Amino acid sequence: MQTLAFIGFGEAGQAFAGSVAQPARVTGFDLKDRAAAMAGLGVEAAPDRGAALAGAGAVWCLVTADRAEAAARECAPHLAPGTLWFDGNSCSPGTKARAEGVIEAAGGRYVDVAIMAPVHPLRAAVPLLIAGRHAAAAEAALRGLGMQPTVVGGTVGQASTIKMLRSVMVKGIEALTAECVLAARTAGVEGKVLASLQKSDPGFDWTARSAYNLERMAAHGIRRAAEMREVAKTLAELGLPDRMAAATALWQDQLGALGVPMEDEGLDARADALLAALRG
C-alpha cells in the first residue's frame, strides 16, 4: 500500500494517523479545516475528496455516523479499482449495507469496521472488529498498518451489529449517569446517592466513572447522539422497540450542544458546569 487516505480527520482519524505504521504517503480530507492537525502528523491535507483519494490503496472513512452513507456516495467516483474502504463509522447494519453497495458498484472493496473502545490512549492498538467479503484482505492490510483487527464474519453488518448493541449499554449508561448525577447534585444528595451505589456495586468506582461519563457526553454528545440514532435504526431493523436508544440520543445531543468545557476533573465541578449551562 503506497497511499493511505483519511476521509474525516477528527479524534479517530488523528489518533490513527499518528500511530499507524505509515505507508509512503498519507492524505486526508475533512469538511472542517484540519490542515494544522494533518501537518502535525505528516498527513497531506487535500483540497477535495478526489485529491485525497488519488492513488489510495486503502481509505479510512471516519466521519460522523449520520454522514457515513453520504461520504461513501461522494467518494465512490474517485476510488481506484480494488481500493479498500474501511468504514469505521458507528452505523446500523442497514446503513453499512447501503454504503457497501455504493463502494462496490464503483469498484472499491468495502469493509465493515467496528471500533470497540475509545481511541485514546490505545490509538492504533484499539480493538477492531471487521466483517464483509473482503475481511481477509482487510485484516492483512490493517495488520500491516500495525492495527489489531478481528474478523467476525463474511457479511457486512456483522461487525456493526455488535458495536450498535454494545452502545445501547455504554451510551445508555452515560445518559443515565447524567440524569442521576445532575438531579442528585441539584437536590443536594449526590454524596448519599453515590455512596449507596458504591455499596451496592463495590467493584465499580461510581464517582470516577460518573465524572468520566459526564465528560464524554459534554465533549462528544453530538457525535454520540448520531451514533445512537443509528442504534435506534438497528433495533428497528431487528423488529424491536428503540425507546432507550431514542431517549439516549436526545439527552446526548442536548448535553453535547451546550459546548461546556470539562477542564476540571472533579465530578462536582463537571456537574455544576453542566447544570449552569442547562439553566442558562
From TrEMBL:
Stored InterPro entries: 6-PGluconate_DH-like_C_sf, 6PGD_dom2, 6PGDH_NADP-bd, HIBADH-related, NAD(P)-bd_dom_sf, Pgluconate_DH_NAD-bd_C
UniProt KW keywords: Oxidoreductase
Highest taxon above the source species: Bacteria
Keyword Oxidoreductase: yes
GO molecular function: NADP binding; oxidoreductase activity
Phosphogluconate dehydrogenase NAD-binding putative C-terminal domain span: 184-253
Active site (UniProt): K163
Limits of the 6-phosphogluconate dehydrogenase NADP-binding domain: 4-133
Protein name stated in the entry: 3-hydroxyisobutyrate dehydrogenase
Organism, as annotated: Pararhodobacter aggregans
